[in-house]
Structures are given as C-alpha cells and as structure tokens.
Amino acid sequence: MANKAAGSSSSTSLGQGFEDEDELMMTIKGSESGWVEARTSCDHLGSLSSDLSHIPTPNTPCNRCHHPSENWLCLSCKDVLCSRFVNKHMLQHYHHTNHCVALSYSDLSVWCFTCDAYLDAQVIMQLRPVYETAYILKFGEAPPFRTVELPQDSTSTKN
Ligand SMILES: [Zn+2]
Ligand SMILES: [Zn+2]
Ligand SMILES: [Zn+2]
Q1: How far is the CA of 150 from the centre of ligand 2 (A)?
Q2: In a 10 Å sphere around its CB, with 0-12 CB exposed, 13-18 middle and 19+ buried, how is residue 5 labelled?
Q3: What is the CA(39)–ligand 3 centre distance, in A?
Q4: Which of 5, 45, 100, 119 can pair with 114 through a Cys bridge, CB separation 3.0 to 4.6 Å?
C-alpha cells in the first residue's frame, strides 16, 4: 500500500509540515498501530448503567483472575475485567452478556466491542460523566475537556 502522502511534485518546501503531524499523532495515542480514530457516535449505549457516577477505582483487580491493573470497566454492569492482552475476561464478558462498551482504566479510552472501535468519550454525551469520574479517580482532578462544537444543525437557514 503506497498511499502515504508521498510528495506529488518534488517540491521540498512542504516537507516540514508532515513531520509535525506525525509527531502529534504519536503523542495523542501511542497504541499498537499508531493513531486510531475514535468514533463520535455509537448505537450501543442503550445498555449503559444508569449510575455511572459511582464506579470502582482504577486499581480494582479483575473480578475473575485478579489481575491487578490496566483492567476494563464494563459500562453496563460496572464489572472490572482484564484486557485481551491478559486473560481476555472483558472480551469473554462481552461474548456472554453482550455488554459491549467498556472503559480502559489504563488510558481511559472507551471501546465498543460491537462497533469494534474506540469511542470519543468527550464528544459522546452519555460517556462524558463516567469518563470524568474515572479521570478524577485516576488523576485526582477533573479532565481538561476540550471545547466541542455539538453537531446541532439548526435547520433554520437564513433567507
Ligand atoms: Zn481476568
Ligand atoms: Zn457487563
Ligand atoms: Zn457501538
């Protein structure tokens, strides 16, 4: 696959910009294969727990194998389970219960197993409270929310 932004013309004056972009992406998310786009919508939030302001602390061990850290919080039943890189208990939980949305206590990312994608917890309103609670539990302060323009199309076009 050679779909890198290869310089179409051989003008070297555009080179610097690309380097900066790469670096920024690495900083935002250093996951396995580099930058992963987080979804800003998900159709599987209907089963989220209604009380996500009370969640287990980020150092809660896996409820199955007691793996001590970097576990996932099921946002439907608030079970704490280990990752696919440990004993896959969160993944098994999804297969057994269809609880598909989980929050990582290692980096506070939110994953939807059904979407097979990360969800942007700062944009999706249903996820913001639990993201904020988890952030406070982990870091002791509220997260620096970026200002988000909500996609509210006021369909009143001025004539
Ligand atoms: Zn486990
Ligand atoms: Zn669950
Ligand atoms: Zn989803």
Answers
A1: 29
A2: exposed
A3: 9
A4: 100
Which overall architecture, per CATH, does domain 45-139 show? Answer: 2-Layer Sandwich (3.30)
Q: How far apart are CA 80 and CA 159, in angstroms?
A: 54
**What ligand has the least distance to the C-alpha of 38?**
3
Q: Helix H segments across 45-154? A: 89-97, 128-139
Report whether pLDDT(49) > 90.
yes
Nearest to residue 31, comparing CAs of 89, 70, 77? 70
User: pLDDT tens digits for 105-141?
Assistant: 999 999 999 999 999 999 999 999 999 999 999 999 9
